[in-house]
Design a protein that fits this description.
By secondary structure, the chain is an all-alpha fold. It contains four helices and no strands. It has one domain. The longest helix has 25 residues.
């Protein structure tokens, strides 16, 4: 994420507040799930690629805000997130290696 994205994310969070943005995060995630379903599994809808890309952009901004909200709750969240990400990625790589996926 670049500075522009982080700045926009911070402004939205400061403007709307933590509680409202948590609700928006959930809504945007649901919209992405719907867009994925419509784009890949409902060809009759003929959804343009721009619509799913738009939802991805929204979710990227929301994830930045969610991470910031969690950081406010726990200052060590960044370290925890990186540690858990490393563990998760290693597990997935092992499963791929062993044909378990």
């Amino acid at each position: 994420m670049d500075k522009k994205e982080r700045s926009l994310s911070d402004k939205l969070l400061n403007h709307n507040g933590m509680e409202r943005q948590l609700s928006v995060v959930q809504g945007e995630l649901c919209e992405l799930v719907t867009a994925i379903s419509d784009f890949f599994w409902r060809p009759d809808k003929k959804m343009p690629i721009e619509e799913i890309l738009d939802e991805i952009i929204d979710v990227e901004l929301m994830l930045l805000q969610l991470k910031k909200i969690l950081l406010i709750q726990d200052k060590k969240i960044k370290i925890k997130l990186e540690e858990l990400k490393e563990i998760k990625y290693n597990k997935l790589l092992d499963k791929l290696k062993n044909n378990l996926l």
